[in-house]
Every structure is written in C-alpha cells, then in structure tokens.
Design brief:
Layout (H helix, E strand, L loop, with lengths): L7 E5 L3 H12 L7 E5 L2 H10 L4 E5 L1 E2 L2 E2 H11 L5 E5 L4 H9 L4 E4 L5 H34 L3 E6 L4 E4 L1 H7 L3 H4 L4 H4 L1 E4 L9 H8 L9 E4 L5 E12 L5 E10 L1 H15 L9 H18 L2 E10 L1 H8 L1 H16 L7 E6 L2 E9 L3 H15 L2 E3 L2 E3 L2 E9 L6 H17 L5 E3 L2 H20 L5 E10 L5 E12 L3 E3 L1 H11 L2 H21 L6 E5 L2 H5 L3 H12 L6 E6 H5 L2 H13 L3 E7 L7 H5 L4 E4 L1 H9 L5 H12 L3 E4 L5 H9 L4 E2 L10 H10 L9
Parallel strand pairs: 1-2, 1-3, 3-6, 6-7, 19-20, 22-24, 24-25, 25-26, 26-27, 27-28, 28-29
Antiparallel strand pairs: 4-5, 8-9, 8-13, 10-11, 11-12, 12-13, 14-16, 14-19, 15-16, 17-18, 21-22, 21-29, 22-23
Helix pairs in contact: 2-3, 12-13, 16-17, 18-20
C-alpha cells in the first residue's frame, strides 16, 4: 500500500503541539490523504477502532492512559492487522526498538521528524505490514498443506534436532510437535532394519552430509514411541540457505503396511490356489526341484502322486459349483492331513491334485500314503446338509526311477493315474515305462477324435434285434464305427473312453442320436418294418443339463415318432443321483421314448430301482450269455434275469448270442429278444434295409 492509498490515518497523541506539527507536515501532502483522525487517549483510540476502519496508526508511547509497550499491545489488540508506527522521545529509543518485537512496523523520534521522513516511515510501515500479512498467509497455507497431506513430514536443523512435525508425523511417531521440538532426530524417529533388527543410521544427517536427496532401505520399520512397529518408505532431502549451505533436512515418510500386505497377498496368490489355499502348479514345481536337489545328498527318493477325483463332475453339475467348491476344500484338508510337514499338496486345477512326498526311504512309503489318501477321500463329506461321496484315482512316479525333473515326474504320474482309472478307479498305480506308449497312443487318439466329426470319419452300423418267438426283426441297435484315415478301423473300446475323458462324447453322442433317428425315419418312410431304433447314451450325455432338450429336439428335427426311439443306459448311470434320474426317465416315458438297461447285472444290480424307474427293457450282458455254453453250471444269472423281467413285465433282450446252444437255452427260458453274431453282425444301413425286407433266415456274417 502506498501513501497515496492511505485514506485514513489515526493519530493517538496527547500533546496538541506535536499533533499540530504532524498535521502540518501531512498538510503539505494534502492531496495524498483523505482524512487524519486525532485522539488524545488510548481509550478513545480503542473506541474509534472498534467502530471505524483506518489504514495506519501513529501512536505516542506516553499517553495518559497507556504508556510504552502497554500502549503498543493495546493498539495491536484493537487493530491487529493495521500497520502501527510509534512516536517516542530521544530517551525512549531502546523502548521503541522493543515495540518492533511487539508488532510495530517502525518508530519515529520526536524532534527528528521531517515531512519526507514521516512519509517514508508511513509508506514502509504499510509495505512491511503487507509483506508480513502475505508471509503469514503463505506460512499458514504451508502449515495447512503439510497437515492435510497423507504423508508424514519432519524437519531438523543442522545439529539434527527436530524443528517441525506435521499431524501425520505426530501420529506415526507418537510424539507431539511441541514435545519433539529440539529433541535429537534419532530419539523421535527410531528406524530399524526389518531383517537384522539393527538401527538404521540417521537419514537426516546422511542427507545433510551428502547434500542430496536420499531414500531409506526398502525393508525399514519405524518404531513408534509406544513400541508399535510400522513399515515405512521415505525420501530425505537437505534444506539450504541462500548461500546453498545445508541448514537442516526434511524427511517425507509414509506407512506402507497396506502396500506390503498387498504385495505379500499378491505373492501368495500368484503361488497358491485361490479356492483351497494350496500351492499351485508354479510353487509345486519349485518345491519339486528343491526336493530333487536334496534327495541325492541325503540318499533319499522323491515321489509324486497325481490324483483325479472320480465322479466329481456329477456332483458339480447336479448340486452346483458352490457345493463342488466346498467339496474340493474338504478334500484338500483331508489330503494335507495325510502328509508330513516336509511334503506338499498342490491343486493343479479342476479336480486334480498333485502331492509331493520328499525324502522317502523307499518307494513303498508312497504306496502307504496313497492308500491313506484313497480312504480319506472316500469317507463321506458333509457339505450343505448333503452327505457326499467321491473317490479318487492315484498315479505314482518316483525320482530318480521315473524321471529326473518335475515336468517328467508329473507327466508320468498323470499317465499312471489314467491307468488306475482304467483298472477300476479308487485305486493307485505306480508308473511303468510301458504306460508312456499307451499315453502317447491315447493322446494321438484324442487329437484325431477332435477332427473326426468334421472329416466325417464316423459311420453307424446297425445290429438287428430278433423276436425269439417269431424270428422277426423287432428293432436295431445303432453302433458307432470309426475309420481313421491312416490307422484304419479303431474299435469303440479304444476311442469311446477317450471321448468320455476329454468331453468329446457330447458332440459325438449328439451326432449318433441324430444320425440314427434320421436313418430310422428313412426306413419307416420306405415302408420297412422297424419297431425301434436303440441308441446308447453315456453317463456324461445323460447328466448334461441339455440332455432332454437335445433328445426331443432331435425327434422334432428328424420327424421320428418318439415311440420308435429306445435309449440304452447302464445300471451305473441310472443309479447315480436316483432322484434326478427318476425325473428324467418319467419325462422320457411321458413323451413315448423307451428306456432299456444295458449290460444288466454288471453294475449295481439293485432290484429296487427296477420298480421305481419307468424302464421298458433289460439287456442281459453278453458275458452272462457266454456262460450258457462255456460254463453251463453258471447260468443262474441268465435264468434269474429272464424270470425277473417277466414278473416285472419288462422286455428281456440277450446280447452277444453266437451259437445255436445259446439260442436254444434262451428260447427254452422264454427270453423275449436277442441280438448277436448268430443272427447278424452290425451292418451298414443298406444291408440292414435288405434284412428288414427279407428277414433273417440264417446267420448273416457279412460285415
């Protein structure tokens, strides 16, 4: 503010002569001022300041009601933001100097004042007050900013004593700014190395000594005043004066507890299965490599167990993924309970687990653990008010016999696991080199299967069913055949299990159903006498959520009468999840589709379901039919099945009839129908149409 902008000046002076002199001086610059207000007492000044604004105060230090510093303090209290210039006598100069510390901007000595000096003092007073106000605002802004930021800030002077802490620093150190002031940095800001627990050298002193910005090591913790430890990271920089000399340092630090916890969590998540918390494939490989490295040194063996659950998919599909997830968690806990602390259980994904057994004295130790795991998994799991039963198949590989690295050992254990499944499931199998040949063969079949449909390599052959009373063809069973472009014919026994394992059975099964229905409709349209067409349905097809929709959709698309379709299912398929099975069978029966139990007697053989389920026919497995001629004393099952079927009003069909003796036995015991090489091999559609036209007078052996 310049004198030109001073509109009102308050003169507090009890000596009228001095007041008149000052007025005359100001009168010389009359155009620069609007108004001079003169009062002779401090009380009058206080009253005026309470009611009016002024631009500057000129104050005599010897008033009737206020003298010296008391006068300054009262004036400053009445108008703290108004510039103040004091008037003093020659003998009061030391007092006048003290007034500057109380907030006055300048002082004038009576008897030494001229007009120019007066105006200069007033102008400088206004400017200094403006600068003081600006500095205060800037300081306040800095103070608020430092207290509002999320990081902690601490400052020290050159000796390394605390000069400032913001609010966050107070909270993190446990020291208030007032308590910490002038204390050594090391006393307020204790930093330790997380690993060694040694005290970190004072970072402020290091920053000042190096005269550059520094950072603490990455694994530091701050020990709060109460002993609580906080992981921190920071940045330390020296503070310089105008000459560039370090006068202290400032440290900005932050609590990184959450960040470090997140890092640990991310590291854990990257190495562990999210569902079970078990080590994942990556971490398992590291542990296998470590176990292999130690084994020769300790003269021990290492084993890997590859586990795949039997029947888990059915539970997942019928009860839902949440229940399936809880079952996997239950199985994981049981597997962990079967091993030592030095071993490891890993979930590879889906329903597959791999177990590392380190430092084994002999391979038989792996067999003991495998048997323990078979039993642990098989025990009932109580999940969401369900008593769930599931089994597992285990393959075992041993270092160094079956592989020298993690990848080979896991692959060979996986191969052995498939052999365990083929051996009947709920069993374990040690790896044998010959299995690799079979594994390669299986992989080759799977790869070829994936292209077989689009390359139209499949075909359906049809085997007639014969009424044993009339000799007429009553129906046909559709049987899939695969001719590989280089391998030639591949038997269903080779490729159907592979298709089931890799999920290809669904598209293949849908193709078989549609192709069989189209062919049956073509024969009907041609006027050929065909009662039913039978199609085998796998467990995976039957449990697929779109099974019924697929069957009825195919019937609509092909125009085949549902009564002409017979679906063949094995006992094991029907008995799993009996409630949902009953619902599906009733829906099929309501629409006219017939159901036959295939390979009867080889599965659960529970008689109760024969009365519970809407079933139309029983098919006697060919292994029992073969006993009619090979072991005549073992024909009880065939006789019992025929008798049971008749009493339950079910049609009984004998499979695999090949001799006159077998046929005679079946006719003698009043079996309804039969099929087998004695009547005809499965044949292509054209030849089967000829059989429908001519009937079967004698065995047809043409394939």
């Amino acid at each position: 503010m310049s004198p030109k902008s001073i509109k009102k000046l308050l003169l507090v002076e009890d000596n009228d002569g001095d007041a008149r002199l000052l007025r005359e001086m100001l009168a010389e610059q009359e155009s620069r001022f609007t108004e001079l207000i003169h009062v002779g007492r401090m009380s009058d000044a206080e009253k005026h300041l309470a009611e009016h604004a002024v631009d500057i105060i000129l104050l005599d230090l010897g008033l009737p009601d206020a003298q010296g510093l008391g006068a300054v303090r009262r004036a400053h209290a009445a108008a703290p933001r108004v510039p103040l210039v004091v008037l003093t006598g020659l003998d009061d100069e030391s007092l006048a100097t003290q007034t500057l510390q109380e907030g006055a901007q300048d002082y004038l000595i009576k008897g030494q004042i001229d007009t120019r000096g007066l105006l200069r003092a007033l102008r400088y007073a206004v400017e200094r007050k403006a600068m003081e106000e600006a500095l205060f605002v800037e300081k306040e802004r800095a103070q608020v900013t430092l207290n509002c930021i999320g990081d902690a800030v601490a400052c020290t002077d050159t000796p390394g004593n605390i000069t400032f802490l913001n609010l966050v620093a107070e909270k993190m150190t446990g020291w208030s700014r007032k308590e910490a002031a002038d204390r050594p940095m090391a006393e307020v800001f204790r930093i330790l190395d997380t690993t060694t627990r040694e005290v970190i050298p004072n970072p402020m002193a290091m920053a000042v000594a190096c005269n550059r910005t520094l950072h603490l090591p990455s694994n530091c913790i701050l020990v709060r005043r109460d002993g609580f430890e906080i992981p921190i990271e920071d940045s330390v920089a020296p503070i310089h004066d105008r000459e560039g000399q370090a006068t202290g340092a400032v440290i900005v630090f932050r609590d990184v507890s959450a960040a470090r916890a997140m890092t640990l969590q991310m590291t854990h998540s990257a190495q562990h299965d999210f569902l079970t918390g078990l080590p994942n494939r990556m971490l398992l490989n590291d542990r296998v490599r470590h176990a292999i490295a130690l084994a020769p040194r300790h003269k021990k063996k290492v084993a890997l167990l590859f586990l795949d659950l039997d029947g888990f998919k059915h539970i997942n599909d019928s009860l839902g993924h949440p229940t399936g997830d809880k079952l996997l968690q239950s199985i994981a806990k049981r597997l962990v309970g079967c091993v030592r602390g030095s071993d490891a259980v890993s979930r590879q994904g889906g329903d597959e687990f791999v177990v590392l057994l380190s430092e084994m004295a002999q391979a038989e130790d792996a067999a003991i653990t495998a048997r323990r795991m078979l039993q642990a998994v098989a025990e009932a799991h109580s999940i969401d008010q369900h008593e769930l039963h599931v089994t597992t198949s285990i393959g075992v590989s041993v270092y160094p016999d079956d592989g020298l690295d993690a990848e080979t050992l896991i692959k060979n254990a996986d191969t052995a696991m498939y052999q365990a499944k083929e051996n009947g499931r709920q069993s374990y199998q040690f790896f044998k080199p010959a299995m690799n040949v079979r594994a390669v063969e299986r992989q080759s079949i799977e790869e070829s299967l994936r292209r077989a449909l689009e390359r139209q390599e499949f075909a359906l052959h049809y085997q007639p069913k014969i009424n044993l009373k009339t000799g007429e063809i009553t129906g046909a069973e559709a049987l899939i055949r695969w001719t590989h472009p280089t391998r030639g014919p591949v038997s269903p026994g080779q490729f159907i299990p592979v298709a089931e394992d890799c999920g290809l059975i669904l598209p293949i099964g849908n193709w078989v159903l549609r192709e069989a229905c189209l062919q049956a409709r073509a024969w009907v349209d041609a006027g050929l006498p065909l009662a039913t067409i039978a199609v085998n349905i796998s467990a995976i097809q039957f449990r697929d959520e779109n099974f019924l929709e697929g069957v009825f959709g195919t019937l609509r698309e092909t125009g085949l009468d549902p009564k002409s379709l017979e679906l063949e299912l094995t006992e094991s398929v029907l008995m799993k999840h009996a409630e949902s099975t009953e619902s599906i069978l009733k829906t099929l029966r309501a629409r006219g589709v017939q159901v036959a139990v295939d390979d009867f007697g080889t599965g659960y053989s529970s008689l109760s379901y024969l009365r519970k389920f809407p079933i139309d026919a029983l098919k006697i497995d060919q292994s029992f039919v073969r006993q009619i001629t090979t072991t005549p004393d073992e024909t009880t099952i065939v006789t019992a099945v025929i008798s049971m079927g008749r009493s339950l009003k079910l049609r009984v069909v004998a499979e695999g009839v090949e001799t006159q003796e077998e046929l005679a036995f079946l006719q003698a015991h009043q079996c309804d129908e039969a099929q087998g090489y004695y009547f005809s091999r499965p044949v292509l559609p054209q030849l089967f149409a000829r059989l429908l036209e001519t009937g079967i007078a004698q065995p047809v052996l043409t394939s």
